[in-house]
Design brief:
By secondary structure, this protein is an alpha+beta fold. It has one domain. The chain is about 30% helix and about 20% strand. The chain has 7 helices and 7 strands. Strands 1, 2, 3, 4, 5, 6 and 7 form a 7-stranded antiparallel β-sheet that branches. Helix 5 packs across helix 6. The longest helix has 17 residues. It is globular and about 50 Å long. The two termini are about 25 Å apart.
């Protein structure tokens, strides 16, 4: 499996904090990242999958949450993950509003990491389809795709999912992820 196949899952969307140089977050979270990271902290950015603000509403705003993660030398099979420090709400007209959720990074827990199986890599590559799927008319195929992709993400990103899925109870209940 190529390194890129591990990165596409969102587990480690960047190569990691190298030589104590914090990585900048991509838009729309860049400003919130700069305001949250403290001098000397070594974190890397990560974002959640998009989630609907309201469900079931095909014209709902979509929300993504920003997290930070870091490796710890004494932890071989996991990374430390923060609470979400910001969220971006994208309205159907394309307007995006970023909201800060915490003034500093707050450690949420340790997320285990592992190589992905071939079928998981295929699902990870489909994460980019979620905005279109969330805004598409309901159908058996759309519903199956939403459940497969999002539930895959909740399994591999359990710490992040536990932090944000309760904020979307109707969608979480509809998904029925195990």
């Amino acid at each position: 499996m190529r390194r890129r196949d591990l990165l596409v899952t969102g587990l480690l969307i960047s190569p990691g904090p190298a030589r104590a140089q914090p990585r900048d977050a991509a838009p729309p979270f860049a400003e919130a990242w700069r305001e949250t990271i403290q001098p000397g902290e070594v974190w890397a950015p990560n974002v959640s999958v998009p989630l609907p603000l309201e469900w079931p509403t095909p014209d709902s705003a979509l929300v993504q949450y920003a997290f930070a993660w870091r490796m710890r030398p004494t932890l071989a099979d996991g990374v430390e993950v923060t609470e979400p420090y910001a969220r971006a709400v994208e309205w159907p007209d394309g307007t995006v509003r970023v909201e800060r959720l915490t003034p500093r990074f707050v450690l949420r827990g340790i997320q285990g990491v592992r190589p992905l199986r071939e079928e998981e890599v295929a699902l990870a590559r489909r994460v980019t389809e979620l905005p279109a799927l969330l805004r598409a008319p309901a159908s058996a195929r759309r519903d199956a795709d939403l459940r497969a992709i999002t539930c895959f993400w909740t399994r591999v990103q359990g710490v992040q999912a536990a932090a944000i899925m309760p904020r979307h109870p109707a969608y979480a209940a509809w998904l029925g992820c195990r």
